[in-house]
Amino acid sequence: MLGVFLIWYSLSSATPQEREELWNNIKLAELEWVMLSVFFGILSHLSRAYRWKYLLEPLGFRPQFANSFMAVMGGYLANLGVPRSGEVLRAATVSTYEDIPFDKAFGTIVSERIADVIMLLLITLFGFLIQTERLILYFSENEINPFISLGLLLLLLGFGIAFLNLIRRSNHPFMVKIRDFAIGLLEGMRSILKMKHKKGFLIHTFFIWIMYLLMFYVIKYALPETESLTIAGFMAAFIVGSFAISTTNGGIGVYPIAMGAVLLLFGINQQAGEAFGWIMWGSQTLMVIILGGLSLLFLPLYNQKK
């Protein structure tokens, strides 16, 4: 609902001339660059599905790649509706079709999210090094703390460990069930330490984020106004966009506004910046809707022979 409100507010607060300019920018976007961006996005999702096997193998599970990929895409689709619900759906999907315990599957997803948060923070650090003043200005004006994600993650881990210690000594049947689930979850998270193919996991992790950077970078060539965007501006916009997506349900409503605001700092007018955001967000979201919807449709058909 917040995303819908932000879309309405963004469009209603613009003048008719600004709305017309925004729409014209979107209509005049060069489609080949948009399609290339979508291609890089698909490669990142394929790599994420393949990387997952490195975390599941130490637990004794080898899911089919097709099921892993469809679970990933179905999860991304769910995230558009309810933030972070996709991780639950993804774990439930492989639990259903690959007979992997839900708690262990979910634990591996938490582990890979930790790896992704570390990558995002490294990119954020690099962005601050090359464009410290403008990023600090944007974050302070919008009351954004880029280290909140890591802090919340560490806080959750701390609560999880404290909760495990609390229930460890209880013999109540309900508490025993919770303890068994928590132990399974922890085992799934620890799979990142047991991997035989750590190099493969790292290569795929870097590949995923390189694809993220590329799918964002090539969009700048879709619009004449953003074609001259510098590396510093690109990095700043990428970082802001990443946090906009990670803190909302797929960045709906927030992403275009964030792009318009941050690109304004680099001499790109707000309508062109928001058009950039709408094209980037819209193309990737449409891809997720199509592939995610097809995945949820074909999952039972693909596995019906089992």
TrEMBL record:
Pfam families (UniProt xref): LPG_synthase_TM
Annotated organism of origin: Salinimicrobium sediminis
Matches recorded under PANTHER family: UPF0104 MEMBRANE PROTEIN MJ1595
Location within or outside the cell: Cell membrane
Protein name as annotated: Lysylphosphatidylglycerol synthase TM region
The entry's keywords: Cell membrane, Membrane, Transmembrane, Transmembrane helix
Domain of life: Bacteria
Keyword Flavoprotein: no
InterPro entries the UniProt entry points to: L-PG_synthase/AglD
Membrane topology qualifier: Multi-pass membrane protein
CC per GO annotation: plasma membrane
Coiled-coil stretches: none
Leader sequence segment: none
Transmembrane segments: 114-132, 144-167, 201-223, 229-245, 252-272, 278-302
